[in-house]
Structures are given as C-alpha cells and as structure tokens.
C-alpha cells in the first residue's frame, strides 16, 4: 500500500515476551494471572452483584461484525411442527423436543481472540511459524485459553463517560495516559496485572445508523505508540477487553497501518484480546456506586484449533 510502512518496520524495536514462559507457551500474558491474582480479584466482591458482558447472538436489532464477516445464523431443526409429519421421530412416552444449530464466525460475537489469530512477518505468538495456522491453528489456538480460563481483578475504564460523550466517534483515539486519567477521575487506579475493560459505547452507532455505520469503517480505541506498548509491558497487563469489534483504532492515524496493537500487544506481548462486549449495565452500575473494580471471570468455548471463540464474561462486584 502506498506510503503505509510495513508492520515489520513499524515494530522493529518493539518488545516481545516470546520465550518468557517457555518455548511451548500458548497463553502469553495470561500467565500473569496466578492464584494470588484470582484472590486479588475475589477481594473486589462486596455486593454479590453479577453482570454478564456478552452481547446477544442473533439480536433482532442485528449483530455488529468486522467488515467481511457475517452475523450468526440460527436455524431451527426440530420444533412442535416437526411432529405434524407422519415421518417425525417417535420416542416412547410421546417425548417431543426442540433443536437448533448456528452457523457463525467464531470471531463474530463477544469473543476471545486466540493468540495466533493475527500476525505479521511470518511468525505468530512466541515465534511459532505462521504456517502452523494452515487448516486450523496447531499453535496458540483458543483451546489453551479456554482450558485455563481467565480470572483476576477487572477495572472498568469508562472513556465515553470520562469524555462526557454518549459514544466515542469514528476513529477517536486515546492513549494509556488517557486510561490513567480516566481511572483517576473515577477515583481508582490501574494496578499491575489488572484486566482492563474499556467502554466506548461505539457499537450503539451500529443500531442508530444502520448500514451507514460501515461507511468509512474506523473504530475508536487505543492508538499505537512505543510508550503505550512499554506501559502494557511494565504493567504486565494480561487481558484487554473492550466494547468495540477490534479493540483499537482500526487504522493508525500516524502511520496508516491496520490493527498495529493486535500485533504489538497480542502477537508480541501475548496480551489476550476480548472484543464486542456489552458494558452498558456494568457501566451504569459503576457510575452509580463508584465501584469500578470487580472480579472478572471468563472462559471462551473449547473449540479445537480455533482462531477465537464466543464467551460470556462475568463481572462480579
Ligand atoms: C481482526 O482480527 C480482523 O479482527 P478481530 O480481532 O476483531 O477478530
């Protein structure tokens, strides 16, 4: 692409955690979430209130997806009308039941990305060859993340409220310094190993604008800088969770590359990415009771060799 530098050059001096957890590692910075971190998360539980952060799959108002992906399709296979036919299956005692199936992009709803989901320069997380993705991820698929689960102290960073906006705008950027300022304004502080949960409410525009939402598609979010990457590295952030489709400004306003933080944070540092969350009820509650930290617990589905999988994360206050 004219005038857009290669990711290999943009991230030539960027830090990596490759090898830090051994040559076979497939969960990266989730290794920071030790038993002590689980207990630090549990200490945030004061009210017994539970928030589920997944967006509805098959929402009658539509499912927002990355351009080129299509929303999940649910098909009814069996229902009461199936027994109108003389060929209907018969079960002793007159049992009837309903069955359905979905045809869905594994990245097409609230989801964990596998660490091998995105790469550049022929290598994925931990230096594995990108050819290990052919036909399914032999390395760094979502399976190891699903097997270990993700539990720790979560902190909501409500950037939209902090900026006094209903939703952030197309391409609106913020930095790690904005995250710290937001935390301070909320009366809290981002601590080492916190799971960052960032609210933009951008996907409200998907419902408000219809097809226009995809015109000049460029989501708001964190913007790449070497300082931001160093901050994630120093803070040993295990997991970045947002309510946008791809967790960062889609096209870097400084160099034009697409999704450089997927590369710098996920591929290089092993930070897990969780996307397309619904943070509205949690954010309203935090604004009301001023408790912005909570126990965060999530486990994506165990799908063999998958690039990601759906999840319904919990925030427990
Ligand atoms: C891409 O990687 C293109 O998108 P996401 O991480 O949102 O699935």
Automatic annotation (TrEMBL):
GO biological process, one term: L-tryptophan catabolic process to kynurenine
Entries under SUPFAM superfamilies matching the protein: Putative cyclase
InterPro entries registered for this protein in UniProt: KFase/CYL, KFase_sf
GO MF terms held by the record: arylformamidase activity
Domain of life: Bacteria
Pfam families: Cyclase (PF04199)
PANTHER family linked to this entry: CYCLASE, PTHR34861
UniProt protein name: Kynurenine formamidase
Organism of provenance: Geodermatophilus ruber
């Amino acid at each position: 692409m004219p005038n857009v530098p290669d990711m290999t050059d943009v991230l030539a001096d960027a830090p990596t955690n490759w090898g830090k957890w051994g040559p076979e590692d497939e969960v990266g910075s989730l290794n920071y979430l030790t038993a002590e971190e689980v207990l630090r998360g549990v200490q945030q539980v004061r009210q017994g209130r539970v928030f589920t952060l997944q967006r509805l799959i098959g929402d009658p108002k539509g499912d927002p997806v990355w351009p080129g992906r299509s929303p999940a399709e649910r098909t009814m296979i069996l229902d009461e009308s199936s027994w109108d036919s003389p060929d209907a299956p018969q079960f002793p005692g007159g049992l009837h039941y309903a069955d359905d199936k979905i045809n869905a992009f594994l990245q097409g709803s609230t989801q964990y990305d596998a660490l091998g989901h995105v790469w550049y320069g022929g290598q994925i997380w931990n230096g594995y060859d990108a050819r290990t993705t052919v036909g399914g991820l032999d390395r760094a698929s979502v399976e190891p993340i699903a097997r270990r689960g993700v539990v720790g102290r979560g902190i909501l960073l409500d950037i939209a409220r902090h900026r006094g906006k209903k939703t952030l705008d197309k391409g609106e950027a913020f930095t790690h310094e904005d995250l710290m300022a937001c935390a301070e304004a909320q009366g809290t502080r981002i601590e080492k190993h916190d799971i960052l949960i960032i609210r933009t409410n951008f996907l409200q525009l998907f419902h408000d604008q219809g097809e226009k939402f995809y015109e000049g598609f460029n989501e708001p979010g964190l913007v790449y800088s070497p300082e931001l990457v160093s901050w994630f590295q120093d803070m040993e952030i295990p997991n970045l969770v947002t309510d946008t489709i791809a967790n960062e400004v889609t096209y870097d306003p400084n160099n034009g590359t697409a999704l450089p933080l997927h590369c710098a944070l996920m591929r290089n540092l092993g930070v897990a990415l969780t996307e397309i969350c619904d943070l509205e009820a949690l954010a309203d509650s935090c604004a009301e009771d001023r408790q912005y930290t909570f126990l965060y617990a999530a486990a994506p589905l165990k799908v063999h060799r998958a690039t990601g999988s759906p999840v319904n994360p919990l925030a427990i206050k």
